[in-house]
Amino acid sequence: MPDDGSKLRDVAILADEGAEVSVEVAVSRMPRLAAELAASSGVARGTVRFARDRGFPVADVQVDADVTVVCQRCLQPMQTHLEAGSRVFLPHSEAAAAHVPEDAELMLASEGRLRLGELVEEDLLLVLPFAPLHDDESHCAQRDQTAPAEAESAEEVQRPFAALGDLMGRAKRDGPKRR
Ligand SMILES: [Zn+2]
Question: Which of 69, 74, 76, 135 is the most exposed place for a label (fewest CB within 10 A)?
Answer without folding.
Answer: 135
